[in-house]
Amino acid sequence: MARRGSYAKGVAKREEILTSALEVIAREGYGRASVRELAEAVGLSQAGLLHYFGTKEELFAAVLRKRDEADLARSEDETGTRSVFEGFRQTIGRNADVPGLIQLYVRLSAEATDAAHPAHAFFTERTRAFRETVAGDIRRMQAEGTARADVDAEQAAMLLLAAADGLQVQWLTDPTIDMAEHVATLLRLLEPPAAPADA
């Protein structure tokens, strides 16, 4: 019984750390949000904080996972549907409000291309899940006639992710870029051509 209570407390503390880290990184930026500052925000030492995650990189990957979960839940609440496209548009639109999290995502995703990196598995799984989910959504839309039938769903899903990742890098360099509008333009390219008007 004591072990179960201890486990529940550990899960709750981990969630508290992730929620606090999301706020601190969004506010301070990835470069200025040190492990020390994150630990102090939840009343732990640096060693105590890393006890819950193992490494700084695993902590940051968990922060991004938590952000993805929050974005998905928010999109479902706002749209009343599990439409990946609508959620994708909304998430990209909100990203400009959290530059620190974009910095974290861009830097960690680049570092995690090394198979030995602690966050490599997170990004590999994230890419696989995104591709699978979005390709499934595109195939459904093709069956409904709301997406171009001549588009390969898997390739389109990868292009959407690549465009979003690339736009985030460009936005960090030039914050005047409207990421949401660029993504909306790309999504419109997947719409079927309008039926020709009767002569």
TrEMBL record:
Residues 34-53 bind DNA. One of its GO terms (molecular function) is transcription cis-regulatory region binding. Residues 11-71 form the HTH tetR-type domain. It holds the Pfam family TetR_C_6. The keyword Repressor applies. InterPro entries: BetI_C, Homeodomain-like_sf, HTH-type_TetR-like_transc_reg, HTH_TetR, Tet_transcr_reg_TetR-rel_C_sf. Signal peptide: none annotated. Keywords: DNA-binding, Repressor, Transcription, Transcription regulation. The keyword Transferase does not apply. It comes from the Bacteria. This is TetR family transcriptional regulator. It comes from Agromyces luteolus. The lineage of its organism: Bacteria, Bacillati, Actinomycetota, Actinomycetes, Micrococcales.
